[in-house]
Amino acid sequence: MTQARRAKAKRGSALAVLLALACATPVFAHHSFSAEFDGDKPVRLVGKITKVEFQNPHSYFYLDVLRKDGTVVNWACEGGGPGALSQHGWKKGDVKVGDTLVVDGYLARDGSHLVDARRVTLPDGRSIYGGTPGDGGPGDGQAGPPR
Predict the structure, then answer these.
(1) Domains of the chain: residue spans and CATH
(2) What is the pLDDT of residues 28-40, one digit of tens each?
(3) CB of 119 within 8 A of CB of 130?
(4) Whole-structure pTM value
């Protein structure tokens, strides 16, 4: 094999590896409301923010919620992506770790400490729709409270 052919073969192999790596990137699938949450199990959480992940396809924020027995449980609250949330009036800088939020939503089907955040009351008192438009969940696309 000539030197030119070896160089061409190496470039081809490198390209194949790069394409394989690109295809191996994780894909985050969008899911319907009913695939993960139970519309018959509404919940209201009041807690302090411990973490915010303002990202696509779903944003998450985490709340420390004080139980009646004095223990604290950290809840993950799933909301729409940044674009959907901003269309409903929520901007990335509106909340910070330590702020208190009120979340009206629905429990995860698997019993985990995960809630679909349908309505979120921000620290300044604004109440916004936090769900993912078009997911088929209760109040889809509306700012009203869960049923």
Answers:
(1) 34-129 (2.40.50.140)
(2) 444 577 777 898 9
(3) yes
(4) 0.70
